Amino acid sequence: MASPIAVVAYDPEWVLIFEQIRDFVLPAVSDLVIGIEHVGSTSVPGLAAKPIIDVDVVVKAPEHMRIAVQRLAALGYVHEGDLGVTGREAFIPPQSMMWHHLYVVPVDNLELKRHLLFRDYLRSHPEEATTYGELKHELAHRFRDDRGAYSLGKSEYVTGVLQRAGWNG
């Protein structure tokens, strides 16, 4: 059984954890990537979040995906496939590292564009981040053991934020 959903207050240490992950991964893929992005709620200062860092490794072209998967496996990452998101490859981190979500995506991937637009909008609209954090706290309390209901409860708000940010994907 999965652990209960826990949404906690923003922790500035999340930036440092992201940097450790980035610095571990980057040497293995530096020739393939245009960047490694901290995405998700932990990447927005002041936003309450589940304390799990989300990382998008952005490769220059789709043909670099397979090579990146192989190199990350050599670091100890376990490839999980796309987990239902076409064009994005997910990984379980090495046992020696703190749990995090790591994805490899090509630069033109729609999910990457959505992640960055959402993150950047919340970073530049702290009142939206506060409202979203309050919603996440309430949903985590109400759906403590139901990740599907928790995610569904956020989806309408996320869609609204993306629309306000100019998403048309």
Main sheet, how many strands, which sense, barrel? 5 strands, mixed
- Mean model confidence by pLDDT: 96
Summarize the amount of helix as a percent range.
40-55%
Strand share of the residues?
Answer: 15-25%
Total domain modules: 1
State the shape. globular
What is the H level of CATH, i.e. the homologous superfamily? Beta Polymerase, domain 2
CATH class: Alpha Beta
List low-pLDDT spans: none
Structural class call reads alpha+beta
Task: Give the end-to-end Cα distance, rounded to a whole number of Å.
Answer: 35 Å
Number of strands: 5
Q: How many helices? A: 5
Walkthrough of the structure:
This protein has 169 residues and is α+β, with helices and mostly antiparallel strands. It has one domain (13-164): Beta Polymerase, domain 2. It is 46% helix and 17% strand. A 5-stranded mixed β-sheet has the order 1-2-5-4-3, sandwiched between helices. Helix 4 (126-142) packs antiparallel against helix 5. The longest helix has 18 residues, at 147-164. The radius of gyration is 16 Å and the shape is globular. The N and C termini lie far apart (35 Å). Pfam families: GrpB (PF04229).
